[in-house]
Amino acid sequence: MPSAIFPTLSAEEIDDLLYLARINAAHDLTAGIEAIAKCQQAAPSDIKSATIDPKTGNSLLHMASANGCMDVLHSLVPLNTSSSSATPALNINLPNSSGNTPLHWAALNGHLEAVKHLVNAGADPAIKNRAGHDAVYEAESGEREMIAAWLFSDGTGLQTGMEGSEVEHQEDEEVIGGKEGQDNEEEQNEDRVKDAQDRVAGMELEQYGP
């Protein structure tokens, strides 16, 4: 039976899960979450919520949204959650240490489908980060006119675009840039996915024995 105590993940576990979310490895991410949940006797939903980088505040949703990883987004935030058996949703408006929500990053990086999915799942376009910028500002600052236009037409509670403080734009450079940076890291990606898969398999073997 899952423990009532909120799970604590190791730095390695957090790093692996965030990385799998970043590269849209939805199947491996689900397997990793379930393996950790079994080891800790916790619910998978609690493992998802606990997967947050302690330095940056980045969550699984931040990583997937910043890189337009729709398979992972659909896995983490399904839109058909009307069933009574649906697991508790992640905090879709959770800010990181810079105050950026997953929607901020999806808008800045130009991932329209991710933006639509997040808003349809309850993301608030009016939330401002620590620099005073909402999602429309991020879209316009990144020259993502289609996203800004969609947010204006379909988003609710938005302020006038390009408003906010003149504080210097604050982003976490490791993730911003999304898939463009991944094109030059394909071999490293394959190695890291293999390492993460091996660790997941190791956890399963440890639990069930030879």
- The helix-strand sequence is HHHHHHHHHHH
Q: What radius of gyration results from the CA coordinates?
A: 18 Å
| Biggest sheet descriptor | none
Count of helical stretches: 11
Unreliable spans: 82-88, 159-177, 205-210
Amino- and carboxy-terminal Cα gap: 23 Å
Our estimate of the beta-strand percent is: under 5%
General shape: globular
Structural class: mainly alpha
Helical proportion?
40-55%
Question: What is the number of beta strands?
Answer: 0
Mean pLDDT: 80
Report what the structure shows:
The chain has helices at 11-22, 26-40, 44-50, 60-66, 70-76, 102-108, 112-120, 135-141, 145-154, 178-182, 186-208. The two termini are 23 Å apart. It is 52% helix and 0% strand. It contains eleven helices and no strands. With 210 residues, it is an all-alpha fold. Helix 2 (26-40) runs parallel beside helix 11 (186-208), helix 6 (102-108) packs antiparallel against helix 7 (112-120) and helix 6 runs parallel beside helix 8 (135-141).
Quickly list its features.
210 residues, disordered C terminus, mainly alpha, 0% strand
In short:
This protein is mainly α.
Topology:
Elements: H1 11-22, H2 26-40, H3 44-50, H4 60-66, H5 70-76, H6 102-108, H7 112-120, H8 135-141, H9 145-154, H10 178-182, H11 186-208
